[in-house]
Amino acid sequence: MRHPGGPTVDEPEDPDVAKSLTAQLDIATDLVTAYSLVTDESYVNDVATATGGTDVTVSVTPTHGGGADVVSSRTLPADVPSYAKAMIGETISLTETRTFGPAAADGSRDGTITVAFAGAPVVITGTLRLSAGGGGTLVAVEMTIKAAVPFVGGKIEQLCADQIEAALRQEEKIANSRV
Q1: Whole-prediction pTM value?
Q2: 97-144: per-residue pLDDT in tens?
Q3: Does domain 19-178 have CATH number 3.40.50.2000?
Q4: How many CA atoms does the CB half-sphere of 38 hold within 13 Å?
Q5: Are 81 and 159 in contact (CB under 8 A)?
Q6: What is the C-alpha radius of gyration for the chain, rounded to an integer number of angstroms?
Q7: Residue among 107, 51, 50, 48 at smallest CA distance from 59
Q8: What is the rounded (10 degree) CA torsion for 101, 102, 107, 112?
């Protein structure tokens, strides 16, 4: 906002506004094989490592009804601008949890995703859906990214969205190299 005769002033961001992200991964295989892949500890470890993760740990726990909880923790280099690095340091530790429900009659699966960052005021939540389409399996991802940081929260949310999109593209490549 420009004040008459004065400098441009950034207005505080609305604390209730968050960044939405929608993405789709195409995996060139059937639903059963795709689900087996995304719930395979080795695959999840490879994805975490390929996206820059170190100190990676992965656990896959089957749930009642044929679903699974996939939890991966890792440390990433803080490849962020200086305004963000001052808040989070040189590395970012995160835990990603994907929870898949049982298969529906058509084989599709719905799930949730959360990403928790140690020491960073960022929360990521969303949904996942595996369904048949495009001659294989489509993984629809919808996320909400919220950075509770005055004045620069929107910039941090956009930075997170850009990095998540790049990580999802990398995951799609790895998935298709394995089927």
Answers
A1: 0.85
A2: 999 999 999 999 999 999 998 888 889 999 999 999 989 999 999 999
A3: no
A4: 31
A5: yes
A6: 18
A7: 48
A8: 0
